[in-house]
Structures are given as structure tokens and as C-alpha cells.
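Hi all, posting the design record for the shared folder.

TITLE: backbone redesign
STEP: 1 of 1
STRUCTURE INPUT:
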């Protein structure tokens, strides 16, 4: 469950940096110039996922044809590992999903920028098939 902001807000400078870094380390393919140029103009319409204890960001509430375009892992300030998945429809970023790894305590917050890295080869066990890295 996410909650719609009473007043949608512009993406913060830190959030924009995080998206750029995520695309740099975990993109399926190099992002287009159009997509990169749109990051600073993104409007956060909803926040949260699975309750109010997540920092996931929704830029477009109609996720219709969105596909994951980048994925990585990072560390929150409390040292817990979190998965980041960036969704887009064409050159339009629609959602930044944050998911905790096993044992991560809530709230799930934005990871430390410098900790974000590509998925390690052993990030997922055989039981995590539906969560296979992007």
C-alpha cells in the first residue's frame, strides 16, 4: 500500500542522484539521453510500498506497461541490505521500488548512495526465482 501525496512534489536532489547512480551500475542497457534528462523533472505522486514504512517512489500511478530497467542492491544507514528496482515505460520512469532483503528491519529507507552496486552473483538463492536480478 502506498499513499498519495496531498501535494505531489518534485524529486529531491538526492533521489535524482540515486536514480542516476542506479542506472549507471544496474541498467539492462544504456539509458537514453531523453530518459536521463527527465530525471530532474520527475514528480513524486505517491510514496511508500507495503505500508508507510518504505521510501519507494511512484512517479506515475498507472504502472500499465512499465518494465524494470535497472536493479541493484545497497545498504541503508542501519547497515541492512535493500534491493532497488527502477521501472519505466519507454523513456518515462514510473517507479522506484525498494525491497528489503531477509532480516532487514523496517522502515525501509533510501540506501546510502555510495553503497549502491550491481547485484552480486550470489544475491539470490534458488528459492528466489521470481526475484531474479534484472
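Okay, here is what came back for every position:
SEQUENCE:
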Amino acid at each position: 500500500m502506498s499513499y498519495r501525496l496531498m501535494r505531489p512534489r518534485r524529486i529531491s536532489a538526492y533521489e535524482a542522484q540515486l536514480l542516476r547512480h542506479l542506472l549507471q551500475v544496474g541498467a539492462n542497457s544504456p539509458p537514453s539521453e531523453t530518459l536521463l534528462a527527465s530525471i530532474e523533472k520527475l514528480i513524486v505522486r505517491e510514496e511508500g510500498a507495503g505500508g508507510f514504512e518504505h521510501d519507494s517512489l511512484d512517479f506515475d500511478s498507472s504502472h500499465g506497461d512499465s518494465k524494470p530497467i535497472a536493479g541493484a542492491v545497497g545498504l541503508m544507514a542501519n547497515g541492512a541490505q535493500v534491493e532497488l528496482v527502477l521501472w519505466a515505460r519507454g523513456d518515462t520512469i514510473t517507479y522506484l521500488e525498494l525491497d528489503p532483503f531477509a532480516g532487514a528491519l523496517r522502515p525501509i529507507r533510501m540506501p546510502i548512495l555510495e553503497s549502491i552496486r550491481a547485484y552480486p552473483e550470489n544475491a539470490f538463492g534458488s528459492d528466489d526465482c521470481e526475484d531474479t536480478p534484472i
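COMMENT: Residues 3-120 form one domain.
Let me know if anyone wants the other runs.
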